[in-house]
Amino acid sequence: MARSLNLEENCFLNQYGDQATMQARFNYYPVCPRPEQVLGVKPHADGSAITMLLQDKEVEGLQVLKDDQWFRVPIIPQALLINVGDQVEIMSNGIFKSPVHRVLTNSERERITLAVFCIPHPDQEIGPVEELIDEERPRLYKKVKDYVSLYFQYYQKGRRPMEAALI
Question: Which Gene3D superfamilies match (predicted)?
Fold first, then answer.
């Protein structure tokens, strides 16, 4: 990602700190008799830096929001879906976007996924890479520590957690 922006290769990784974490979560979505009324997961963006998702082999459910429309994310066999999280959006000064997504339930089949979240150490301060700030692209985000805690505080209130990092 850094190379694609002509930046020093480790400029994003350096913000993770020496004790970054990876958290894995299995998600089980049982059969739902009323999928039009029950979401598997409400619309949100990930609070991680990067999320890797191994989708169910047969049952779709993930949707991404683009231009105020929901689009289904197709299953690609044997593939990992890589998602940019809020923390990379902050580090990239908004160049890489953390997409809003949701999960639908299914009336006929259960769905199982595995999500792995890559998270900078909570004591590590993250912020936009200085080379991505100039007169044409001013700083959009302030530096923050322990973004995941901020994320859950805002998420519980139904607010977009990125508000906590905006200038």
Answer: B-lactam Antibiotic, Isopenicillin N Synthase, Chain
